[in-house]
Amino acid sequence: MVRSSASTLSTIQAMRTKLVNIRDTAVMNAFMIGDTKLCYEKNFLFIAISRDETGTTWNHVPDELIYMAVTRSSALFMISCARAQSELSLAEPCDPQSCQLPSCRCSTTTIPGGLEPRHTPQFVVLTFDDGVNVINTETYRSVLYGRTNSDGCPAGATFYINHEYTNYQLVNELYNNGFEIALHSISHQTPQTYWAEATYDDIKKEIADQKIQMSHFANIPLDEIKGVRMPFLQMAGNNSFHVMADYDLEYDSSWVTTSFVEPGLWPYTLDYESTQDCVVPPCPTASIPGPWVMPMKSWFDLSGLPCAMADACFSPPPVTDEQAWFNFIVTNFERQYLGNRAPFGFYLHEWYLAINPAVRNAYIRFLNMINSMEDVFMVNAAQVLEWIKNPIPINEYRQQPCRSFTQTTCASRSCPVVAEHNGMTYWMTVCNLCPVRYPWLGNPLGQAVRRTRSKRSHGGLDADFTMKIYILIASVLSAALCARAQSELSLAESCDSEACQLPSCRCSSTAIPGGLDARDTPQFVVVTFDDAINILNTETYRSILYGRHNSDGCPAGATFYANHEYTNYQLVNELYNNGFEIALHSISHQTPQTYWAEATYEDMRREFADQKIQMSHFANIPQSELKGVRMPFLQLAGNNSFHVMADYDLEYDSTWVTTSFVEPGLWPYTLHYQSTQDCVTLPCPTASIPGPWVMPMKSWFDLSGLPCAMADACFNPPPTTDEQAWFNFIVTNFERQYLGNRAPFGFYLHEWFLAINPAVRNAYVRFLNMINSMEDVFMVNAAQVLEWVKDPIPINEYKQRPCRSFARTTCIVRSCPVLADHNGMTYWMSVCSDQCPVRYPWLAPPRKPALRISFTVASQYEFLRRIGKIMDSFSMFRFIAVRVLQVAAGVQLRRMHQFRCIRLHLKRKSGQRKDCDMRVYVLLASALFVVLGAGAQSELTLAEPCDAAACQLPSCRCSGTSIPGGLDATSTPQFVLMTFDDAINILNTETYRRVLYARQNSNGCPAGATFYANHEYTNYQLVNELYNNGFEIALHSISHQTPQTYWAEATYEDMRREFADQKIQMSHFANIPQSELKGIRKPFLQLSGNNTFHVMADYDIQYDCSWPTISFTNPGLWPYTLDYASTQDCVIPPCPTASIPGPWVIPMLSWFDLDERPCSMADACFRPPSTTDEEAWFNFIVTNFERQYLGNRAPFGFYIHEWFLAINPAVERAYVRFLNMINSMQDVFMVNTAEVIEWVKNPITVSEYRQKPCRNFQRTTCPARSCPVTADHNGMTYWMTVCSDQCPVRYPWLGNPLGL
């Protein structure tokens, strides 16, 4: 305690009086709400002062605290937590006389020490970013370990490591192999703007705390951790460097330069103003002595565009061309080597080498080359700084001793640790004791959280304590009202083995049921697959599971945990009828994982009890056969899921992972009594819940000894290309049970893992073949295991029992396009029912919505309640509000329950009124929004049925399948519309050049195509190139944002900013006449009712090609206008209903896949041919083409995304064959969309069409310019290539399409 004299305290009281009179908002806003506390760092002290609702409360602050502040610091007003900025002064231009090595250096391209380039060592700094784990360490070992420079010293590299998913044993290994370990943040969180706006305290928690964390868990000396790289290379202004200065971090390697590359910028300090270009703002502007800047000098790709990291170049060499990549690396290296020899940075992520063997080979060749060069040295970043501080010529550098460092040991330990920030369980490998909690921001060592009580102050309860009381009360009320599950359950007691007896009860134990010896116990193998069942994965199931038998002659079993979304219920029925068990995996399978961890009884009822009904109905499976549950992400929900199972007759759960009870293995058990199973994924059940069984998921162990709940989720599995290694791996895990207590062996997997890894699939099949031939092993479903556990019998009796029987069912299959209310999407369902559902089946509304109050909903409720009070005070407003509802809804609301609620509310009837309040306010707010916001609709009239006599070409056409001009099909040109969607850039343009350029139709005119281009990531120089090659450019929105509902609900103003503004934007940046920009395609083919077409009419956009049709494909629907009501089917509502003269609709005639399911785009078919079968794809295309060609010759649309051709060479070859075919046909013409409309307006026969002149257009030039531009909407820096002599000031976006 500080003792204060009476005079000093008297002075303090006077200061207190002055402070009470302060009314400066800026100062008051700096005070923190919370307990009075001291924060002491070095020579800095601040006081956090509590305040009440009326203003700042000073009187209860102890005088001793103020005395300490006065005596410790001369600045009484250093109260704000944001000390970082307040203590820094603006940097001045560098004074070379004052700024001298070794502690200071101006930002400059001059070589340190005044050396000539030929005497200067060329340093090469190899770096890798992100987590270190067993997968990428294999690459590091193979390409880096054991290398030496030409001077005999070990070659170096720097690893910028973030915390999450990092294996600290391997970090220690890298350190002990001589590589530098540097910091890359604890969280590495998104969005990027988090880092741009990060405060001093944010950076302290991310970087300074990580230094302690890294040292602790990887057992690396603190003084060896010197460097920082910010995530996403996103600068944080002065804050990161200020933290570095305060916490003894030597350098930062995040600051990209594109202007100081040739000659290159050498490292420098921030004592003075930096001259480096600020590519990813905000950049530091203050004077911050201490930290060094290691500039990241950009590479330049094949288009001359800069790239900060080698794996982020926009136009790199082909990743399959080793020689091209080697040349590319050397070219960028020589920019420094043949220049001023500034350090050459080779910045990379390991995954890029792992997936591109040719790039990896080029990388190794480059390292081999530089390791043999006498004047080049592969070092870490800290070694570069050491040389700069004391620059010496090459000949002296080669004579100096090699770097030495203190090697350390690693007492490795693997730890399952629960994270408080997301509820997940992480497996950490550390070089010391396990942390109690998962280390994270604010708790970098994962220590137990010590909770303190808030105290009553002289001025009453402080705000923080009061808030905690409110939260506690609300939590208790919420628990009392909502969590009925918990209230009815009692805490489970230790198991009483005398009372708990089979068949209905079993204690959690590794003892074999029935007291059998292991050699007499059947070894059950439970093969399971998770997630949706569809045509793609069912092919795998048919090929590896169908027709199998165990050695007793009975069919082999398996269990499918199927979720609802994207499931084909016809195929579920097929699996069931082939003898496999169908179990539940939820309706929504939604993210985040915390949804499941925090799920209430009601949530679980809607997800699983309702899914049982749903699955039975749509797949035609008896409810009694649906017995099992597996929670998504293997995330338990405490007692709630088991309580629902007990109430809704679900027999078992197979979600609960164990890593402690594997050898010997834990057998299935019930929850009458307390479980002894380890709780790997909190929360686990703690109540006594008779009925449901637990089927423990016994972990496998990978090659590093780490546990994995599912075989496809192991951290260090065998190589996926090594069949024998995988077979041995499976058998090793199997034998852990087979040679032990024979607890059921679970082979838990997702089908995709087998589909993409043929060698693993072969090993899987070999294993099944092996166990199917073994006399004491039985491949069964999960429910069969429980049947045996309830009545355990030895092997010889088990083999004599009858095979399982079940009631087979039929499937009257129906395919249904159904709209989902929860996301606005249209799903194709295949169901075993004579009727399609009206809406897409989804989670039902909660049964007691008034009781399900979360804090977010509660806050919204309070907000609406207060608005309601205001509404109540104005009787006229109440009257208007009701009339608004009537008009907006277009119905007589007094017939609806909602209107009854309004009447009760307005008449102030108590009791009944309370239940209505929320709905009333929401309805009023929604109605007001409709009336105030949807101005576009108010100007339109409802379209009437088409009057063919009044609607005449060229300006009007009714929706119909009749051929324009009354022509015969044989006299009608067959138009083919080739279109591509999304951004245009250097990657996809290569494909366009290869498959489209220089094509001609049989009449000698250039073949056409239409590109629907969105703005983000588009290269406008390449857009100009496509336009000048005769292709049509059309609009696909500025933002192309998600979710899809944004487009479904878009207003007139939204559409104006997305499309009318994009027309101006496209014309400006690509230098294309606005008159040539005629068409639109909506993102996700999501219509917006009348709004899009209304904007098109107002802003002279001629046509839309977004509206799919399934019903009008044979004969096909021709283009038409919206003067009158459309007869086209509305596949993705809302569709236009108003009369909107002007714009044309180009119907997207669906293709049909191998199952006769419709698909709007060729790359979105549910069951297309194999992507490796060129002939099958060619036939598939021709079949769909002939639907129009042999019919009424409506335009045939070939709608696709370039990536589908790029990754599927066989499909691309089929595509080219088709184009070659139609280009040679006398009555088929490959044209752009606008050309089709021109013909429809003035239809002529094939013979006349062949004689007409070819299309001409006004070509333009492109003075290309590459521009780094920062976006206001997300803080990112984009590289734009535009056809303009000036770069935009800001990244063009909604509301600012030209980036002014």
From TrEMBL:
Domain called NodB homology: residue spans: 120-211, 521-618, 971-1068
Q: What top-level branch of life does the organism fall under?
A: Eukaryota
Name of one Pfam family that matches: Polysacc_deac_1
Which GO terms of type biological process are on file?
Answer: carbohydrate metabolic process
Q: Which GO terms describe its molecular function?
A: hydrolase activity, acting on carbon-nitrogen (but not peptide) bonds
> What name is this protein filed under?
NodB homology domain-containing protein
Species the sequence originates in: Eumeta variegata (Bagworm moth)
Tell me the organism's taxonomic lineage: Eukaryota, Metazoa, Ecdysozoa, Arthropoda, Hexapoda
